[in-house]
Amino acid sequence: MSDTTVPIRAPEAASGFCRRCRTIHSLPPDGARREARRLIKRFEEHKSIASQPEHFDLPGLSTGPLFGAPRGKMFGVLECLSNDGKPIWLYAFSGQYNGYWQVPGWAPPLFDVDRFHRINDPEEKLIKAMTRQIEQQPDASAAAELKSERTKRCRQLMKDIHDLYVLNNFRGESATFDEVVGSGCNKPTGLGDCCAPKLLSCAAMLRLKPVSLAEFYFGRPNRSHSRHHKHLYAPCTDKCGPLLGFLLCGI
Fold this sequence. Notes:
Layout (H helix, E strand, L loop, with lengths): L13 E5 L4 E5 L2 H17 L26 E9 L5 E7 L19 H24 L3 H23 L4 E2 L5 E2 L1 H5 L13 H11 L3 E10 L13 E2 L7 H8 L3
Antiparallel strand pairs: 1-2, 3-4, 3-7, 5-6, 7-8
Helix pairs in contact: 2-3, 5-6
């Protein structure tokens, strides 16, 4: 199939098992699919993810890198209603965009960005320095010891970062990853950074009522070729699935 906005198959509803209700909560793609296609057209027209015309020329928001070495990215659209029934659209991108966690017009991450940098940046710098030491270490036993220490620091850093995330649902509840998926769970890298968790948590904080949710991939196919340009996809099962039951609770 050539370059098209038509998916290989229709995306399934966003859904997840809620441990509190002991049931599956879900949200259909419906109207959000149409808005996703409008967003794709905007990307193609302006070559930017900027939401305001005055920002279209900002290099950091260009869609160009999505077709280069960094490859493409998932984007999400959430259709909501305000308390007075007014339709409101929320938008999100997965992870960071060209190094930015926050971009005007897009849902924020599930953590305080300043706290993230205070915890992550110095430790990441140290871990990279350890990697250089390992590469230059002629003594195999010394290199193995450094690798072991680096692994411990990486695991601790990941735990510290995961502890920053706060999930919000439509019962007015907030929870950490440990409270939602369990403290003993081996949490994958990027947990909570996908579009659906960002969108739903943002809508809950704004006290909006979700109506539909759709996600699409824009850019060069990913390395496994499981994601293709302008195709629609359901939220992933490994990173979104464990969180969606809690996030959708109360709608």
